[in-house]
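SEVERITY: medium
COMPONENT: batch folding queue
REPORTER: lab tech (J.R.)

DESCRIPTION
The queue accepted two submissions in a row. Attaching both inputs and their returned structure tokens so the on-call engineer can compare them side by side.

ATTACHMENT 1
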Amino acid sequence: MRNLVRQACKQGDIRQLDLEIGLFLERQNKERSPELLLAASLASAAVDRGHICLPLDQAHGLLSQKNPEILPDPEDWRDKLLASRVVGREETTAPLILDSKNRLYLYRFYHCEKRVADSLKKRATAVSEVDTEAAAQLLDHLFPERQEVDDQLTAAALALLKPLLIIAGGPGTGKTWTVARILTLVQRLSKKPLRIGLAAPTGKAAARLQQSIRQAGDTMGSDGIPLSTLTTSTLHRLLGFRPDTDEFLFNEATPLNLDLLVVDEASMIDLALMDALLKALPPACRLILLGDRYQLASVEAG
């Protein structure tokens, strides 16, 4: 099995860095364990390929030899890993985390994923108070031409009820058209001026979002709010990224001063950046994520 790991490195299935991480964790284990070396090296390689974990029963997919029989039986492999000193279960502190579904994580990515999942679930299940009568009148005014099944109207109504809204669709499906009306709807029903932010993962995407929102706002005429005054930024700039410390100015202790945030090209947000964003959002801030599942994925894992 040790030869399998080194052969995988020679063939480019894993990087030298992945192998070194596996060797390091094997040394930390105080006992030679080819199963641990293999699993740790592949878990690191999985992250390099954009995955946040290594399902043991799918590990052969990372190798040039796609035959699963060259790897240990997943159940036996799990038992060997859990017997080591550097592999822990959920909610433990260990370099590697093996969850109940036999997915092996580097510690950082397991807890990062859990924080993101918990935060999104909390927002998705929360319900905001809304003046239903006033909301119905505004919805009728902003969406006068309704279809039998009107997804855009549904999205606008959900934006009032939920602190989290995800709008998915390809180019030309009316995502920003809908968002312009959502912003108008939420602002008109608010008792105070809202602090609205627009952001995207890249500068090009941010500029495109700002242009699209302004154009969508122009189509509303006097019915809309002054969307042309809104500015967009990259997520790193919004969060106050500090290259010298690799940290963000805004976080749980210093949240963003926003009531509503629209983020475009959500598919390009990696796990660590999404974690940082959710940490920096005030609990009451509405989050609207726009994206297209068929567009570019994140460069980093997640």
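ATTACHMENT 2
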Amino acid sequence: MVNPGTFRGGRKGFLMGEKESYYAARFPVDLPLDVEPSAEALAAVDDDTAEPEPEEPKEDDLDAEEYQEALKRLQARRDLIVYRKGQIKRWMAYQYMKDHELNATESGAQNPFSILLQQLTGVSFHRPRQKTPANVWRRTNREQIEEEAKRRAVEDTTGPKKKLAPIRESVAKEMFASLSEQEKEEWAQVAKDEHAALLAKYKSEVESPPSTEPVDRQRQFSMESVP
């Protein structure tokens, strides 16, 4: 997934609040990420008009060296577009996980009864562990992994039918391994950020006094909270 700090300033505001509009029209791929577009450029955006495609270099108008350089620039731009789309997709996936609190569990440091029990008895529960980058990436790619695993299971006619679980594990490992080093580094950073947030929450819940809010007290002493 993307480093959540990749998009800042106007880019972050746009992605957070204007998901139905067009990103590239406001923030051209050629514009460095640390440069904000001018107010005039943003005001001139027309979402009803398609963005013009870069022209293919004409071999007849250029000498051999110029033509090859033009082709390289065009391909580099196309590669950057693909990469930027991937960054946005990973950023959206990160925000989805964050918005829906997919990291929250009702065990360990997240369980109010366990927190109270530790404060009263001094018996500690496990600190949250940092997930691997592959496991964090996997949460946002379950559908693709499942689809490929099922396809392989159907096409495998070499012997007895394999259970889907080991095929799924193999697919997930291969897909993550195929990511670029930059993408792997971004997912590693996401894993670190998530772990840091969980540790901060763990420390806050362990060291702070039990909540006196009625809803929290009810949760703390309900039979459903008892291990």
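NOTES FROM REPORTER
Residues 64-99 form the longest helix (36 residues).
No errors were logged for either attachment.
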